């Protein structure tokens, strides 16, 4: 097939050539075919066809499509292409009016060239200017963004700023679109979502330089930023070289840097030599100190004045938080082709990352206090804060204010509740070993509930007497004997304040004589004429004990709780199942608590689906201790 297509795409017939190029574009996705076609020097043939400039329209479109598909397999190096080929591809991008498919393939080819070869970057950069890309922003913003990102990543230091400024322009144009969509409440389609995602990645990639830049402890300009943090926090002016002795000034600086929460109190510049987050952390701290001065001063002074080992170190927290935010937002990573995961709130502010940091550092300080944390708990606090931030981001807040509001509802207590709830609902709790454990525990829990019900019956309950005519203010008391063999009951003149002794209850009913327990409408005292005309709630509280032939002991429970206790207890005495809502609720609560306790030591341990195999019996039992 490769041989046939290799011949057909060189046909003098335009129709035959077009059909062959269509087939080639489709077949080139298969790596086996691609290998055969490349072995026939097919890539060189396609590049010659492009360089000749004789093809246009669909012919050119399918030629470029086949070229892209073949190169995606990574069989041929990008360094093998001539300057003439690069110029030809660049010319398609530079034209204001160009076929859509040709333009798309050309942008993709240029992006791949830049990413895969430093030498090709130089050649592409000479052929493409920002001005030539601007006319295509309207319809091809996503592809333009990818190309700019590739140029940005490969560019030398002196040229990166140009690409960075253009990316900011891209962000501005897309952010206007995004804000308009949010205000109009119109749905964002997949194409638009992917463009915004790519733009978000590009914007955050502008931070990569600062993130990967170490602080030079000898750089006075960088050290001045730390002096500025000290000045704003403690309202002190930078001391002149002549004020006080050197030792005194060093001692004062060390004290203040310790209060600011730096790890290195003598020279805090050393704290920013770790990459990531490098200088980006210091940039965030300075932005917070200048633009949210009251919050900054409050956090620093609040923690520096504590003497109970619960102070939150602002400097160390800011550095680790910046590193964490870069991980969450994947700063420095290339955008994925099929991802639509963007956050609208990052398009609502010119300094969105810095504002994001300001919200999160205040959250960190709040969570630290809620956890009553010490320096030993630093990593635990950071884990909770990361969970709070990622959970808040999942709802895709439209603004930074919405994000902040969401965080207020995700306190440390709420995170613990969510973790507990999710652990009970996760797949592990539906696995065979866990279900078997639940089944094994269930009879123990049921026996516990049964004993509780019988103990309550032994304590007894005061019931109100209900006649068929009217409600009377007469009471009677019933309780189970401690040996669970007899029900003692009798009338009372008034409602008792505590338990009524067995001796004062005149009547007895042996449990052995009880034949059945009936409830609701089946009770004799609910069948009497006029009884059902009373409050219908009585039906839900009524139950009767049938003994001898047609004798009944009729009850109206004071409330639903007592009704469940007594019906469960009587059914337990008769050896029947306890089926009340109260029993089901108790079973769920106690069973879940017992499961959590038993699985406490298995945190983050994978529970196997099948039991481990039983080992073979030993060949002899000589190792067993002989008691004789």
From TrEMBL:
One of its GO terms (cellular component) is guanyl-nucleotide exchange factor complex. GO terms for biological process: actin filament organization; apoptotic process; cell motility; phagocytosis. InterPro entries: ARM-like, ARM-type_fold, ELMO_ARM, ELMO_dom, ELMO_domain-containing, PH-like_dom_sf, PH_domain. It comes from the Eukaryota. Gene3D superfamilies: 6.10.250.810, Leucine-rich Repeat Variant, Pleckstrin-homology domain (PH domain)/Phosphotyrosine-binding domain (PTB). GO terms for molecular function: SH3 domain binding. Residues 221-393 form the ELMO domain. Keywords: Apoptosis, Phagocytosis, SH3-binding. Involved in cytoskeletal rearrangements required for phagocytosis of apoptotic cells and cell motility. Acts in association with DOCK1 and CRK. Was initially proposed to be required in complex with DOCK1 to activate Rac Rho small GTPases. May enhance the guanine nucleotide exchange factor (GEF) activity of DOCK1. This is Engulfment and cell motility 1 (ced-12 homolog, C. elegans). It comes from Cyprinus carpio carpio. The lineage of its organism: Eukaryota, Metazoa, Chordata, Craniata, Vertebrata.
């Amino acid at each position: 097939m490769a041989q046939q297509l290799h011949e057909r795409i060189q046909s003098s017939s335009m129709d035959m050539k077009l059909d062959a190029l269509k087939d080639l574009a489709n077949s080139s996705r298969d790596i086996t075919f691609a290998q055969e076609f490349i072995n026939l020097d097919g890539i060189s043939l396609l590049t010659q066809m492009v360089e000749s400039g004789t093809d246009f329209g669909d012919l050119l479109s399918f030629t470029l499509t086949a070229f892209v598909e073949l190169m995606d397999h990574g069989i041929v190096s990008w360094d093998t292409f001539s300057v003439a080929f690069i110029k030809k591809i660049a010319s398609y991008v530079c034209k204001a009016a160009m076929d859509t498919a040709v333009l798309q393939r050309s942008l993709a080819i240029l992006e791949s060239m830049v990413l895969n070869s430093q030498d090709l970057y130089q050649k592409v950069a000479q052929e493409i200017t920002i001005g030539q890309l601007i006319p295509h922003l309207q319809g091809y913003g996503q592809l333009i963004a990818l190309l700019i990102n590739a140029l940005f990543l490969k560019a030398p230091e002196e040229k990166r700023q140009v690409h960075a400024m253009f990316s900011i322009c891209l962000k501005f144009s897309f952010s206007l679109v995004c804000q308009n969509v949010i205000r109009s409440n119109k749905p964002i389609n997949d194409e638009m979502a992917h463009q915004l995602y790519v733009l978000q990645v590009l914007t955050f990639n502008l931070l990569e330089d600062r993130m990967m830049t170490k602080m030079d402890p000898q750089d006075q300009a960088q050290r001045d930023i730390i002096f500025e943090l000290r000045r704003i926090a403690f309202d002190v002016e930078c001391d002149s070289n002549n004020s006080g002795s050197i030792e005194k000034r060093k001692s004062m600086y060390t004290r203040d840097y310790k209060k600011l929460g730096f790890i290195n109190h003598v020279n805090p510049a050393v704290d920013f030599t770790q990459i990531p987050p490098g200088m980006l952390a210091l940039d965030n701290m300075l932005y917070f100190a200048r633009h949210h001065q009251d919050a900054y001063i409050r956090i620093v002074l609040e923690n520096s004045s504590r003497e109970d080992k619960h102070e939150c170190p602002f400097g160390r927290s800011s550095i680790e938080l910046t590193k964490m935010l870069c991980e969450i937002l994947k700063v420095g990573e290339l955008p994925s082709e099929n991802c639509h995961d963007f956050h609208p709130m990052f398009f609502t502010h010119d300094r969105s990352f810095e504002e994001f940091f300001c919200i999160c550092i205040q959250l960190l300080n709040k969570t630290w206090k809620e956890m009553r944390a010490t320096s030993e708990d630093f990593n635990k606090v950071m884990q909770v804060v990361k969970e709070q931030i990622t959970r808040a981001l999942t709802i895709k807040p439209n603004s930074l204010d919405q994000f902040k509001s969401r965080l207020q509802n995700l306190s440390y207590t709420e995170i613990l509740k969510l973790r507990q709830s999710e652990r009970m609902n996760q797949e592990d709790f539906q696995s065979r070993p866990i279900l078997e454990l639940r089944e094994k525990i269930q009879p123990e829990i049921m026996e516990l509930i049964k004993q509780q019900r019988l103990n309550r019956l032994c304590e007894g309950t005061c019931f109100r007497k209900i006649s068929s005519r009217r409600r009377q203010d007469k009471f009677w008391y019933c309780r189970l004997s401690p040996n669970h063999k007899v029900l003692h009951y009798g009338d009372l003149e008034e409602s008792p304040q505590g338990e009524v002794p067995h001796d004062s209850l005149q009547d007895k009913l042996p449990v052995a004589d009880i034949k059945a327990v009936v409830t609701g409408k089946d009770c004799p005292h609910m069948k009497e004429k006029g009884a059902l005309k009373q409050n219908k709630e009585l039906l839900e509280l009524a139950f009767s004990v049938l003994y001898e032939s047609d004798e009944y002991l009729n009850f109206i429970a004071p409330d639903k709780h007592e009704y469940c206790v007594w019906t469960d207890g009587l059914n337990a005495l008769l050896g029947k199942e306890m089926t009340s809502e109260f029993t089901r609720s108790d079973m769920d609560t106690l069973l879940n608590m017992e499961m959590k306790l038993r699985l406490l030591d298995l945190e983050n341990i994978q529970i196997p689906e099948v039991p481990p195999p039983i080992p073979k019996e030993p060949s002899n039992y000589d190792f067993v201790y002989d008691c004789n």
